[in-house]
Amino acid sequence: MTPLLSVQGVTKRYGAHIGCADVSFELYPGEVMGIVGESGSGKSTLLNCMAGHLTPDAGQVVFDTRADGPRDTVTMSEPERRMLSRTDWAFVHQHARDGLRMGVSAGGNVGERLMAVGERHYGDIRSKATDWLERVEIDAGRVDDRPTTFSGGMQQRLQIARNLVTGPRLVFMDEPTGGLDVSVQARLLDLLRGLVRDMGLSAIIVTHDLAVVRLLADRLMVMKSGRVVEAGLTDQVLDDPQHAYSQLLVSSVLQV
Amino acid sequence: MTDQDYNFAYLDEQTKRMIRRAILKGLAIPGYQVPFASREMPMPYGWGTGGVQVSAAVLTPEDTFKVIDQGADDTTNAVSIRSFFQRTAGVTTTTKTSDASVIQTRHRIPEEALTEDQILVYQVPIPEPLRFLEPRESETRKMHSLEEYGLMHVKLYEDISRHGHIATSYAYPVKVEGRYVMDPSPIPKFDNPKLGDMAAIQLFGAGREQRIYALPPYTQVVSLDFEDHPFEASKADHPCGLCGAEESYLDEVIVDDAGGRMFVCSDTDYCDARQAAGYKGKDAA
């Protein structure tokens, strides 16, 4: 089986500082990978390198494209990479405001990716947008409202709808539940889990919230100071952490 | 000689040369916004500094020059720019569309079809069609270069979702030769069909924004739309009150404070010519 995404030796430096160093892993179709670590451990840098927002200093990010099979996205041309990020990839930002157009209605936000790949039939775009709003539990009657009138949780769900409307195969998520209160988090996680299972999505989720990875991720990587210190099945890493930092991380979670 | 010792058409030769290079580049890549070193002109930004610089660069002493502002030859902007070139270039000026070889225009295309011997110069306030959708210039330039124009349709989508139809009625975005999306300057969308396949050269100058773009003769220009909401060139549904024309673009004029109004051709030269030929509208004196 060909991995959907194969990351080899990805390194990113900021001057003398290390963003992330020598990260390698493989992600198979339908698999959800969690990346955890404290602030500044390089997990967002790694995610941005994989999603093409940053250019890594070394290493390969090989994605199994629909048309040409495995291709290194670091060396492919920018139009091709941007095309991927509109079709096969999705990126869910921590702050919904970074991923949404706040001056454009919810329907327009969801429709943008469709129009970007050439959809030119208003009726079709609108019905797909409405359908997706319902799938992320937003009332279809709010299709013409701007995201500024939405609550934080709704904005985050709208961002997810906007990303998934073109049927991507790989979703990058940067702290998808950050900044939401716990009950909203729980609903969002439930929704995400359903969507990932239904659509057979692969996902890479960066978070510092261990509960999120426990629920969503099949596998887990623990990062510290730009390096992966431990990797394995989620339950295995969380229940029997081997590395001193992983043990600290797991033991730091408050038990209510 | 003109009344002051200005160089022909105000600008110095080096500046005109620089502008001509930008114009030639613009003609070579229809719809592409060419940056140029816009000069301070003796008028405020927004009054047509871009158009004036382009006109200055293309004028020759043998040219006949016409200026229209919203279709009219007799408004402040048109009168002052016309007299500016009369003084600094000593060119013949006219208000007759067919007599002019260079026409500078603000927000209209003349009703009368232009010929291969004419140049139409537009004054452009904001050359970037994506400006209000994506404020970063670095990003819009990338979108142009990579032909990522999905966002333009988001604007039209928003129009339909809010108003039930495409409510953008001026500065309606067009696609040039299947490549660049271009802002046709704030002409009414009624004029959009005239942009394409026109015999005259069309030059667009944006002074404050320092951009020049162009459409060579007989260029394909398509107004953007949706399959189920096609582009429609719209105008007020009335005949002209003075000349009775049914096909021309109309201005609505309030004539008293009791709700009285009349519709007249925005192109004054077209209207005058029709009245001289004996056509009468219902409000004609």
Automatic annotation (TrEMBL), chain A:
What Pfam families would the database entry show? ABC_tran
Q: Which SMART domains match?
A: AAA
Specify whether Nucleotide-binding is a keyword of the entry: yes
* Keyword vocabulary terms for this entry: ATP-binding, Nucleotide-binding
Q: Which domain of life is it from?
A: Bacteria
Start and end residues of each ABC transporter domain: 5-250
List, alphabetically, the InterPro entries matched: AAA+_ATPase, ABC_transporter-like_ATP-bd, ABC_transporter-like_CS, P-loop_NTPase, PhnK
Q: Which GO terms describe its molecular function?
A: ATP binding; ATP hydrolysis activity
Record GO biological process: organic phosphonate catabolic process
NCBIfam families cross-referenced by the UniProt entry: CP_lyasePhnK
The protein's name is: Putative phosphonate transport system ATP-binding protein
Origin organism of this chain? Answer: Cognatishimia maritima
UniProtKB/TrEMBL annotation, chain B:
Pfam families associated with the record? PhnJ (PF06007)
Which biological processes are named by the entry's GO terms? organic phosphonate catabolic process
Alphabetically, the GO molecular function entries are:
4 iron, 4 sulfur cluster binding; alpha-D-ribose 1-methylphosphonate 5-phosphate C-P-lyase activity; metal ion binding
Q: Which reaction does it catalyse?
A: alpha-D-ribose 1-methylphosphonate 5-phosphate + AH2 + S-adenosyl-L-methionine = alpha-D-ribose 1,2-cyclic phosphate 5-phosphate + methane + 5'-deoxyadenosine + L-methionine + A + H(+)
EC id: 4.7.1.1
- Provide this UniProt record's keywords sorted from A to Z: 4Fe-4S, Iron, Iron-sulfur, Lyase, Metal-binding, S-adenosyl-L-methionine
Q: Which domain of life is it from?
A: Bacteria
**Family under the similarity heading:** Belongs to the PhnJ family.
Query: What is this protein's function?
Result: Catalyzes the breakage of the C-P bond in alpha-D-ribose 1-methylphosphonate 5-phosphate (PRPn) forming alpha-D-ribose.
Q: What is this protein called?
A: Alpha-D-ribose 1-methylphosphonate 5-phosphate C-P lyase
